[in-house]
Design goal:
Elements: E1 17-25, E2 28-36, H1 40-50, H2 54-63
Antiparallel strand pairs: 1-2
Helix pairs in contact: 1-2
Length: about 70
Amino acid sequence: MVNVGAVSRQKDGSPLARWMLLEGEGDRWNVTFQRMAYDVEAAANWAEEYAHHGNKEAAQLRTGRP
């Protein structure tokens, strides 16, 4: 099992989205963890307006810290 975690709920200080690529065939598999930029400010603005505890969610999106 591989768990990349939430795409945008970072806790390591990086606001970049994270995802993984799982490639394989038969019993041979490779997992590649990736990070990529996305419109963090747009997501944070949405969180402030609509999310439960929106200010807290927005801060986490912007800083990559809980």
